[in-house]
């Protein structure tokens, strides 16, 4: 585990923020064919696990930039425009997942570490979806039950499924690489 | 796999403005329009938004995909949320409303009553919602088609972001073609082993399980290559001094005018909505039945 402060933003964090954002954008764009019907402004993106994973491994700032910037670039590639409150929500997912270090994450494999990461992923998804849904109330004038039905629930279900399944797989794969290379 | 940006040079009026001025205008527009539910003011914002959109000289054909998505969202929001259920208009409309139609229906066998009450106020609010969402969409949909991706890093640096964060954005844009190529290579390699991306079927969990053989190798490969990039940047003393930018833009007089207009728009919106209370829902008196 990296002993640096989780709030430091050095060369390594600059590079991995960029890689995380580009990965999230490319994988979102490449998996655009998976669409959930009847969910406003929400797409089924397995790539949403990328900012969460980068948050867990490289810290909350990297997680935030990967999600925030990755969503912007992904929407630029797809031609969907720019939706600041949804970009922020994606950033929050990566940021909160990155706070798992504060809970004493000691590695990237083993039930204890994976469980801690999963808990922060759940919190991150809920906070991010709440922010996006609340923003829709402000921007679009919908009420709370409507935004829960059309934004909050359709956002949390696929993101939780993607995050809870893919992030542990990525963590275990990363652990193998990290231990082999001594990083 | 060919990854292309939506931007191309169009020699449009919008492109003559500095990207920083355009971002600030777009974000202030969002804040300003969000202060109003009065159709008279929303109509002004709507005209302004589509005049701005037209200045980019982007054809409808190019932006069709985004507009299809927006139309779907509008349908969900207005038809289902406001007109059918009435939920979208809650808290904004006055308590006393005037019905256009009232349908009472009882569910057979159970006897449960269902009442559908459509009001003039709700229909007028749907118009306000449509104007507001379309205006915001026009402002933000046009960005990828009219802004050079090479300028994002410098633009956000100029808007006060930290040098490293701005460079991270710049680097991310450069990584996109590289990672798209890696994805393509991985996809081909997995196909050679019998993987069929075209047959990713089943429920959500099954689909994720089938996508993992693509996502994991691409991610791990990029992390390994990232270490080399980090070492190369450190060897070149990255971050010791403020960096210089290959692509730069300058503020011109027209950008100053746009900023003045943006400032006036924001101040006028705040004053009109908070001091004179023009932001609340309004409906013409002649539309309300006696």
TrEMBL record, chain B:
Its membrane topology: Multi-pass membrane protein
TM spans (from-to): 23-54, 66-93, 123-147, 256-283
Keyword set, alphabetical order: Cell membrane, Membrane, Transmembrane, Transmembrane helix
Chief location: membrane
Compartments it resides in: Membrane
Cellular component annotations (GO), alphabetically ordered: plasma membrane
Xref: InterPro entries: ABC/ECF_trnsptr_transmembrane (IPR003339), ECF_transporter_component (IPR051611)
PANTHER family, per the entry: SLL0384 PROTEIN
Name of the protein this chain belongs to: Energy-coupling factor transporter transmembrane protein EcfT
Organism encoding this protein: Leptolinea tardivitalis
């Amino acid at each position: 585990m990296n002993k640096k402060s989780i709030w430091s933003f050095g060369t390594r964090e600059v590079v991995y923020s960029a890689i995380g954002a580009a990965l999230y954008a490319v994988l979102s764009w490449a998996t655009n064919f998976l669409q959930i019907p009847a969910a406003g402004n929400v797409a089924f993106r397995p790539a949403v696990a990328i900012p969460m994973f980068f948050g867990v491994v490289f810290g909350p700032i990297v997680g935030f930039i990967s999600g925030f910037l990755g969503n912007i670039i992904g929407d630029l590639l797809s031609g969907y425009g720019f939706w600041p409150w949804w970009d922020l929500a994606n950033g929050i997912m990566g940021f909160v997942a990155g706070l798992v270090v504060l809970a004493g994450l000691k590695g990237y494999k083993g039930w204890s570490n994976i469980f801690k990461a999963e808990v922060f992923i759940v919190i991150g998804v809920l906070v991010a979806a709440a922010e996006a849904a609340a923003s829709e109330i402000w921007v679009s004038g919908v009420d709370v039950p409507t935004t829960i039905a059309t934004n909050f629930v359709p956002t949390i279900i696929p993101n939780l499924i993607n995050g809870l399944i893919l992030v542990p797989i990525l963590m275990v794969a990363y652990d193998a690489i990290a231990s082999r290379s001594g990083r | 796999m060919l990854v292309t940006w939506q931007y191309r040079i169009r020699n449009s009026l919008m492109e003559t403005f500095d990207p920083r001025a355009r971002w600030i205008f777009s974000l202030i527009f969002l804040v300003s329009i969000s202060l109003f539910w009065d159709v008279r003011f929303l109509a002004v914002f709507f005209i302004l938004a589509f005049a701005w959109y037209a200045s980019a000289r982007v054809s409808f054909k190019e932006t069709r995909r985004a507009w299809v998505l927006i139309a779907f969202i509008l349908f969900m929001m207005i038809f289902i949320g406001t007109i059918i259920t009435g939920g979208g208009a809650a808290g904004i409309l006055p308590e006393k409303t005037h019905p256009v139609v009232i349908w009472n229906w009882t569910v057979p066998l159970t006897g449960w009553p269902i009442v559908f009450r459509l009001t003039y106020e709700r229909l007028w609010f749907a118009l306000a919602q449509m104007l507001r969402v379309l205006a915001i969409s026009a402002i933000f949909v046009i960005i990828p088609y009219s802004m050079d991706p090479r300028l994002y890093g410098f633009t956000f640096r100029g808007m006060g972001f930290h040098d490293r964060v701005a460079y991270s954005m710049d680097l991310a844009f450069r990584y996109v073609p590289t990672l798209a190529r890696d994805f393509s290579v991985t996809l081909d390699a997995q196909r050679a082993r019998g993987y069929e991306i075209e047959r990713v079927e089943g429920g959500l969990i099954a689909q994720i399980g089938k996508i993992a053989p693509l996502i994991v190798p691409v991610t791990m490969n990029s992390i390994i290559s990232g270490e080399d990039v980090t070492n190369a940047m450190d060897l070149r003393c990255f971050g010791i001094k403020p960096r210089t930018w290959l692509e730069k833009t300058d503020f011109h007089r027209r950008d100053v005018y746009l900023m003045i207009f943006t400032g006036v728009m924001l101040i006028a919106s705040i004053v009109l909505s908070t001091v004179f209370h023009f932001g609340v829902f309004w409906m013409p008196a002649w539309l309300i039945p006696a």
